[in-house]
Amino acid sequence: MWERTLQDLIRGLRANKADESKFIAKAIEEIRQEIKSDDMVLKSGAVLKLTYLDMMGYDMSWASFHVVEVMSSPKLHLKSVGYLGAIQSFDQDTDVLMLTTNLLKKDLTSSPADIALTLNGISHILTPDLARDLSPELIKMLTHSRPAIRKRAVLALYKLVKRYPEVSTQVVSRLKDKLEDPDAGVIAATVNVLCELTLHNPKDYLALAPPLFHLMTTSSNNWMLIKIIKLFGTLSPYEPRLVKKLQPPITELISTTPAISLLYECVHTCIIGGMLEGSSGDALARTCVSKLAAFIQDSDQNLKYIALLAMVKIVPTHPHLVAQYQDTILASVNDQDISIRMRALDLISAMTKRICKTLFNKSFHISLPTHPVQMHLPLQSHWPSIPYHLL
């Protein structure tokens, strides 16, 4: 029967495009019979086909209990089908998730392959109740002997903290340890998770600044450096001492790195992290503006776009530096790409507003009298009458 394999189901769909709904209705009816079978191979095949149909928009929530049954299979290739079905179809309101607590705990103490599969699944199906009940097991996985397991456990921590914020204090200390893990993949996963977690509660992760700074000054991995620079861009507004600490290494990175993505991230972090403010940021601001000006002159339209966006943010603090490249900026107004023209006009508008404000302030102070002047206003009775509708 074609219904017994996913491959045959797909072939049938391709062959019945003219009457697809009727074909699928018949297929689902067959699946309803197969999924009740005691044969776990047949049941898992039915779940696999339902998962495919769910991706096409056909609801499979009615089969949630059968998905859990397949998840409990002792055979890895069948268990993986169950987890795939759960990832695809379960949500926070799925009732049968309350039945999976013991199953998930058992799988987290099984073979490394089962643990890896379970960690992948947990990241998608975790609910607040499951997060509370499974937090000890998930945190324990951070010390597993296999780097692949530790990496998956670190990645699962993001969803754990999101679903169960009460565990965040414990997670911070564990993540600090993972920043010094002997495996580079685990460290990369930790930095990635921190990038997401700090977006919600940056102050909770300020204690991780020292190990992150050590990584930034010792790592040669551009991907890692980009993530760490982003992290510091989020953290530095909450810890003023970080600004002074970060200025020298970031200046060196901007001046020496050939990687465009890393260079832009450094410039962007300097802007949003407040590193260009004050007299100490003048040299760094000059370096950033010169690099952005080079981006504007580049043939890559994407570089032009992000450079113009970044310069708009530098105008409030260093308008004189941006003004040095006004010819380059004005040339962008005639660019063929309308998005480039719009961003160039935004930048020119920002520069003009800043110049007008400066000129107004200067002229206002110059025109102020050096001694108080007494104003003698005429009595109201002598004022000219103004029609009410003009007021």
UniProtKB/TrEMBL annotation:
Coiled coil: none
Record's keyword annotation contains Membrane: yes
One GO biological process term: Golgi to vacuole transport
This protein's UniProt keywords: Membrane, Protein transport, Repeat, Transport
Compartmental location: Endomembrane system
Gene3D superfamilies noted in UniProt: Leucine-rich Repeat Variant
Pfam family, one: Adaptin_N
Annotated GO CC locations: AP-3 adaptor complex; endosome membrane
Residue span, Clathrin/coatomer adaptor adaptin-like N-terminal domain: 20-353
Keyword Zinc-finger: no
InterPro entries associated with the record: AP3_complex_dsu, ARM-like, ARM-type_fold, Clathrin/coatomer_adapt-like_N
Family, as annotated: Belongs to the adaptor complexes large subunit family.
Protein name: Ap3d1 protein
